Amino acid sequence: MSTVRPAEPHDDGIAAEQIYVTGLHQRLDEVRARTVTRLAEALATVPHNPQAIGEREAAVELHAQRIVALDAAESGLCFGRLDRHDGDRPRYVGRIGLGAEDGREEPLLVDWRAPAAQPFYTATPLHDQGVRRRRHIRTRGRTVVSVTDETLDLDDPDLAQRSGLAGESVLLAALNATRTGRMSDIVRTIQAEQDRIIRADHRGVLVVQGGPGTGKTAVALHRAAYLLYTHRERLARSGLLIVGPSPTFLTYIADVLPSLGETGVVLADLGSLRPGLTAHAPERPEVAEVKGRATMVAVVAAAVRGRQAVLDQPATLTIDGTPVRFTKADAARARSRARTVSRLHNEARPAFARAVVDLVAQKYTDVLGQNVLGGANLLGSGDRAALRQEVAAEPAVHALVDRLWPRLTAERLLRDLFASPQRLAAATRGWSDADRALLARPTAAPWTPADIPLLEEADELLGVDDSAQRSAARRERDRRLRDAQETLDLLHGSRSTDWETEDESEELSAGDLLDAEGLADRQEERDTRSTAQRAAADRTWTYGHVIVDEAQELSAMAWRVLLRRCPTRSMTLVGDVAQTGSAAGASSWAEVLEPALGPRDRQGWRLVELTVNYRTPAEIMEVAAEVLAAGGADASAAESVRSTGERPWARQVAEEQVADAVAADAAGLDAAEGTLAVIVPRSRLTAVTEAVRARVPSATADGDLTAGPVVLTPEASKGLEFDSVLVADPVGILTEGVRGHNDLYVALTRATQRLGVVHPGGLPPELKGLDPR
Ligand SMILES: Nc1ncnc2c1ncn2[C@@H]1O[C@H](COP(=O)(O)OP(=O)(O)OP(=O)(O)O)[C@@H](O)[C@H]1O
C-alpha cells in the first residue's frame, strides 16, 4: 500500500444530515429522560425482603448502566451513513442503537457493533455488500461539521487513486491529531482487517500478531465492547477481564471502554491480579525470568511438601503428667494418612491432626491401661474415648501438629521459602547455584509482579482449611431455619380459626405458599455487588472472556494464571513477538502457547495478523525497521499508513553532558504541540529525570501521561504513544536489555510525529538512517 496524505473533506449534504442528526439527539434525549424516570422509580421502591432488595439492585444497575451508555453516546452519536442498492432509506450508523418511537422495524440509528453496521467498515468496491455509497459524518457537539463520501462503484473514475483505506481522509485526520496522554476510541474509522478481528468468533484462543501501531490495543478494546454487546447476558454473569502490561498502561487505556458505553470490565496488570495484594515492586529482569520458568511449578510443589515434615528425632509429649513418645515412624504414618485424604495441604491438615491424636491417644491408653499382669488393656471403650478427648485438647499436641503440618497461606509459604537457604536448596534440587541465588531474598522484601503466579500456584496446592467457616455457615443456616419456622408458626397461630364462610377457610396463608426452608432462603443476604466487583475480589473467579495485551511479555507461569481464570479458553491475545523485552517472554507464539494449548493446526489456537502501522510515520519506521532487522527478528515491520515529511534526527554529545543535552532537547520538543516522552536506559533514569525536571518542572517519571512530559524506560513505554519521542543513549538501551534490539525498536516506534535521538559516542550502524544534527 502506498502512503497517503490527508484529502480535503467536501461538505455536500451537511444541512440535510444536520436535520437527521438533530432528530437523533432529540430521540436520545427522550430515551435518556425515560431511563432516568425508571431509575428514579426503582430507587423509590421499598423492598421488604432480601430477594426484593436483589431485584431492586439489579433494576438500578440496569438503568444506571443504560444512562452511562446514553451519556457516552452523546459525543459523536452518529458518524456514518450507508446508502444501499435496494434500500429506499439510508441506514445510519452510530455509537448506540436507537429505535424509532413508533416501533418501526428499521432503527433510526444502528449500533456500530450490530451486524447491519458491518458494511460500514468492510464494504469495498469489489465486495460492496449491497452498499452504493458510504458517508462519514463528522460532528462537533450536536453540530455536523463535515461529510465525506466514498462511492463503492467499480466504474468510479477516482477509484484508482484510492488507497484501500476506508474513510481515508477521516482516518488520516484522526491519526494526525495531537495526542492527549489518554487513548481514544476508533469507532468512526475501524479498518476492514481490524473489523474482522473485532467481530471474530468468541470461542477458542485468538492470537492477534501485529507490529507497533497496527491498532492491536485499539482492536482488543473494541473487541471487548463488541463481545459485551453480542453476548451481553452471558458476559454480564461471568465478566470480562483485560490484562495489560503496567498500571500506567491501564490508566492510558482506561477511557476507551467507558467512551463506548461499557463499564463492567475488569482491567488488571499481572501485579494487581491477586485480590487484596499490590505487587509492583521493581525486580531485576534475570530474577523475573527465573520466577517465570515453568519449572517453578515443581519448586512450589516441593516447597509445600517440604512443610509436611517428619521428625528428626522422637518427641516426648507430657499429657497430664504422663510422658508419651511420638516417633519418626508415627510422624510418617500420620503424614501418609493425611496425604491420601487430600492433595491440598490445608484441606489435609484436619486429617493429619486426627491421625496424630489417634496415635498419641493409642499410646496414652496403652500406658494408662497397662495390665501389670500382662493381660489385655484394662480400659474400656468409654475410658478410651475420654482419653482421646483429653489428647485432642492438649496444647502440646496442637503445637506438634502446627510444627509438622502448619496451616499455610501462599504468602507465608513463599516468604519462608525465599528467606531460607535450606528450604530453597531442598525445593530446587538440580538447579545451578547461580539460579538458586536469584530467588533468595529477605522475608520483608516487597512483592513483585513475577511473584503473583507463584502465589497463585501455591494457592492451588494449599487449598483452604475452611472447616471452621463451614461449620459456622451450617450453624447460621440452622439458626435461619429455626427463625423461619418460628415466623411461620406465629403466622399460622394468628390465623383466625373461627371461619364464617367456607371461602375463608380456603384462604392461603404464608405457610401454605412457603416452607421454612424457602423462607430461610429468602432471608439469606444477597450479594449486591456488580459482576466486575465480585470478579475482581475473587481469586477463583473464572471469566467468560479474557483479553491480554502485550501478551508476548508473559512468562510460562503467568500463562498458567490466565488459563486458570478462563477454563473455557475464550480468549483474545494481542501482541508482537518482535517487541518482547523480558527474557521470560515469547520469541514465537508457538513456543508459549503449545505447551498449554497444543499445536495451532489442531485448533488449539488461531493466529491472525494486522499489517498496517497507523501510528508511526514512514520516516521513523524506515529507521525502526533497520533496528528490527539488525536484531535478527524474522518479523517484518508493519507498513506506515502516512508520512509527515519530518525527518527523525540524531545528535552526538559528550558522555558527561548526556543528561543536560537530553533535558535541553526535551525542553525544545516540549514546546511543540502534543505529548512528549524521553526514553532512556534504566541506568540513566534518575539522572535524566532530574535534569529534565530542572528545565520542565511538570515532567514525571511515569504515572499520569496527561500531566506533562514523561521519562520512561523502554519497558515502561510499552503500548504507549506520544507526539514527540526523544531517545537517549541508544547503545545503552541495546546493551542493557536482555533483548536490546527489541527494546530500542519499541522506543523508536512510540512516536506519532517527531523523533530525536541523543547519543554519547558513535551511532550504532542500525541507526545510520537518522539525520545528523
Ligand atoms: N482504524 C483506526 N482509526 C484511527 N486510529 C487508529 C486506527 N487503528 C489504530 N489507530 C491508532 O493508532 C495508534 C496505535 O494503535 P495501538 O496503540 O492500538 O497499536 P498497537 O498495535 O497496540 O501498538 P504497540 O504494539 O506499539 O503497542 C493509536 O493511536 C490508535 O488510536
Automatic annotation (TrEMBL):
State where ATP binds: 210-217
> What molecular function terms (GO) are annotated for this protein?
3'-5' DNA helicase activity; ATP binding; DNA binding; hydrolase activity
Q: InterPro entries attached here?
A: DNA_helicase_UvrD/REP (IPR000212), P-loop_NTPase (IPR027417), UvrD-like_ATP-bd (IPR014016), UvrD-like_helicase_C (IPR027785)
Stretches with biased composition (Acidic residues): 499-509
**One biological process term in Gene Ontology:** recombinational repair
Any one Gene Ontology cellular component term annotated for this protein: cytosol
Composition bias, Basic and acidic residues: 519-529
Keyword vocabulary terms for this entry: ATP-binding, Helicase, Hydrolase, Nucleotide-binding
Quote the protein name from its UniProt record.
Answer: DNA helicase IV
Organism per entry: Blastococcus xanthinilyticus
